[in-house]
Give the backbone structure.
Amino acid sequence: MNKRLFVLLIVLMSLSLIGIIFVQGYWINNTVENNEEQFSFNAKQILTSVSNRIQYREFEEMFFPLREILDSIDEPDNKTIRQLLDISVDNTTKSFARANDILEEDHKLFSSFINLDIDTVRLKNILNRNTDSAERSNQNDLMKQNSKSKLERIQGLTDLERVDYEVVIGEIASFIPIHRRVQEREVEYLLKKELEEREIKVDFEYAIYSNALATKVRSDDFSLDYPTTYAIPLFVNEEGVSEYQLYVNFTGKKQYVLSSIKGMAILSILFTLIIVVAYSSALSQLMQQRQISQIKTDFINNMTHELKTPIATINLALDAIKNPKIAGDSEKIHRYMRMIREENKRMHAQVENVLRISQLEKNELNIKKEKQELHDVIEDAITHVSLIVENREGYIKMHFGALKTTILANDSHLTNVIVNILDNAIKYSEDEPKIDVYTENVKNSIVLKIRDQGIGMSKVAQKKIFEKFFREHTGDLHNVKGHGLGLTYVKRIIDDHHGQIWVESERGKGSTFIIKLPLIS
């Protein structure tokens, strides 16, 4: 795939994923805001309904005593007004007393402070309309009127009559303290009822204030500083003015708003995470496949070069042998035959490494293990490369410090492992190869260290040195051959022997390969 197209696809996919996440976040946030607005709308309706019910309940309780007084008098004077106030307040207070066990002594003490500032003109208008209504009604109508329920009698009032009564009742009720006009249990009951009717399960705190001053009607944990406090006026007069305000804190509002979208939000986040994980995995696989494709291309090119050289050498040697001038020189023929044999062995070793890795990946390589002495295996491996080291005027020194060397291993494969490491030490030494081999016992294991003084490797290479096809770039060092399979094979064999292998290296100072194998008794 073209590199630019590959990058463009990744950018488009990433932008699409970011867009999906952004849209999901926007949807969740927008839904929360809509739910909060809906909750606020419901809260205002609830408070309005509670306020209307409280005011209607007070009107209903005081209307009938007031109606009886107006039906029994001809002209309201001061004496009548005092009688009206006393009886009305008495009836109202008794109604409260039945709900809250208020003592009669409290009512008598309270009644002595009542102001007689009542609108007598409005009382006369109510009385006159009441008298006219009575004259127009016959006895049967009165009997029917009395037989009606209280609710029907209140609903039968005209709008004008109702307003007149509301004004007078409001004036009378204004002399009663708010904690006797409204009870805590009533507010709590009405709020719960309204919430249940709307299927809203949320906790709340409430309080009634009089011109910004707290009254006795309040719940224990109410706070006016709560972030979301809703308010509604209580006992509004005909001019729309009220001395009292009902405040309510819905303390469980946040949980309620979030709970309504919690299920969908969790599913949305879950599916988004799945998409992110799938995208990351797909991208990782795509990068790996691209890297593997590049590595395979490099491997084919490198392998072609590795095979092309010995093939060319063999062809040249065969041509030389066919030359009549060389045919009679047995020494040169023997030399060319030896070259053909070495190059053939080299090609065979390269192909064998590829087959070994393939078999290891498919778990088809049958490795039979027997008791072996590691020192013997090391010495055998050194003999395979000793001539090459001597030819380059280098050395391999053995420093055997381990006293216990018996391991369970496959002699052939373990020898190949050590030969591979020694071969790398020789390849990556610019000058004469200088190699030291150490052994030591660590608890129930034997540790083998192969140290060279070659060119070393970077930190990145140390992490990837055992990966398939990996070869570090060596600059101008052209004599280093290979295709990056040797150390992969080494790692697989050591793992199969239940051992460990790692490398310690520094640029320009050489490398040390460390192998740790379990001992057997």
Summary: The chain has 16 helices and eleven strands. The radius of gyration is 51 Å. Residues 99 and 266 are 48 Å apart (CA to CA).
